[in-house]
Design brief:
Elements (H helix, E strand, L loop, with lengths): L25 H11 L9 E5 L5 H8 L4 E6 L2 H13 L6 E5 L2 H7 L6 E4 L11 H8 L3
Parallel strand pairs: 1-2, 1-4, 2-3
Length: 140
Amino acid sequence: MRVLAGKYKGRVLKTVPNISVRPATSKVKAAIFNILQSRVDWRNAVVLDLYAGSGSVGIEALSRGAERAVFVEFDRSALQFLKKNIESISLLSEAQVVFADVKKFLTTSSRAYDVVFCDPPYAVEYLAELPSMVFESGAV
């Protein structure tokens, strides 16, 4: 998996080798950022990456100029890869990694973000309520 565009274009990102985390494919990531390209001023954006996994989506936003990204992940093995990816690209000052359950994070966080990425595992029991939870939290 690689960063697709921006100042870190081509950098290789590592991910969990088992199926506990399924990273966004390059095609999906490209489609998301193509849609957002004309809608988001990345230079000033603060991004929230929920269920961050390897961090590829939030790192892509930082590569395209986002000011800051907050990565929320609860899977310990994914968290290790996320931290390594952030360190390997030297994003420590622009990235904040939060080890937390997303549902709990949303109920305790009071910050608003310019862009919220949310790619939960298929087995999340509260999947249908997740969009409402994000909006009600004030994250957007």
